[in-house]
Amino acid sequence: MKRILQTFACGLALAGMVAGAATIVQTLPFSGAPNFSLPLTFNSFDVSLGTLTAVDIGMTIQINGGNALVDNDGAETANVTVTSGVNGGVSSGGEVAVLPPLTASGTVVQPLTLAPDNGDGTGIDPAPADGASISLAGASGANTITVMPGVISTFTTTASGADYTLNADANNFINIVGSGSVSGGFTGVGAAGSVTVTYTYDPAIIPEPASLAIFGLLGLGMIRRRR
């Protein structure tokens, strides 16, 4: 009888085993002309699948066209470094909290020597030699954050009960170092990318058919042993 009980306990242990943590991955694309903020709708985690243990949010962004423009309006030659591109970010639509902030940037760094103002006025005229046009196409970036433990529950109990919104944000930026007389702007910029939400969870323990069959055989063995 003791041996049968030990075997039965072993069968219970096998039935309780799971193949480690599981994941669910959702990826949604976005595109547009910065500056923009586009809502993306994701499915919340179904708690019947198990216990949610971690949420990772990732973003990729790529500039698919456009230029940064600079123009020297000063009377002296300007030696400058221009850093420009598109800053991307993910923000909460209200139902969930995303911490820490998530950003990903497509960035171009370009050193320039610009001639003194040639009389083209105060507007941004990128024509040489006192101006320049910098292609931003192809610049890209990516980043991922892990949601803080105290926020994980909001991905299962959202206001709508079934889904929630994350905003994909994209904004042009330009930083000119070396001369205060050089101004900058943009033309024709477009950006695209994706936001990915990954759920990591411990699956609910459900005995596999093979384990149930073991229970049946063990039960028969115990009955016969008693007889």
Set out the fold topology.
Elements: H1 2-16, E1 22-32, E2 36-43, E3 50-72, E4 78-92, E5 102-114, E6 131-135, E7 140-146, E8 163-177, E9 182-203, H2 209-226
Antiparallel strand pairs: 1-9, 2-8, 3-6, 3-7, 3-9, 4-5, 4-8
Helix pairs in contact: 1-2
Write down the Rg.
29 Å
Shape: elongated
Structural class: mainly beta
- Roughly how much helix do the residues carry, as a percent range? 10-25%
Strand fraction: over 45%
C-alpha termini separation: 12 Å
* Main sheet overview: 5 strands, antiparallel
Count of alpha and pi helical runs: 2
Tally the beta strands. Answer: 9
Q: Helix and strand string, N-terminal first?
A: HEEEEEEEEEH
Q: Low-confidence spans: pLDDT under 50, at least 5 residues?
A: 1-18, 210-215, 217-227
How would you state the average pLDDT, rounded?
A: 86
What keyword list fits this structure?
five-stranded antiparallel β-sheet; mainly beta; four-stranded antiparallel β-sheet; disordered N terminus; 227 residues; 52% strand
Overview of this structure, please?
With 227 residues, this protein is mainly beta. Helices cover 15% and strands 52% of the residues. It contains two helices and nine strands. The strands form two sheets. Strands 1, 3, 6, 7 and 9 form a five-stranded antiparallel β-sheet that branches. It is elongated. 27% of the residues are buried. The N terminus and C terminus are likely disordered.
Summarize the structure.
The protein has 227 residues and is mainly β. It is built from two helices and nine strands.
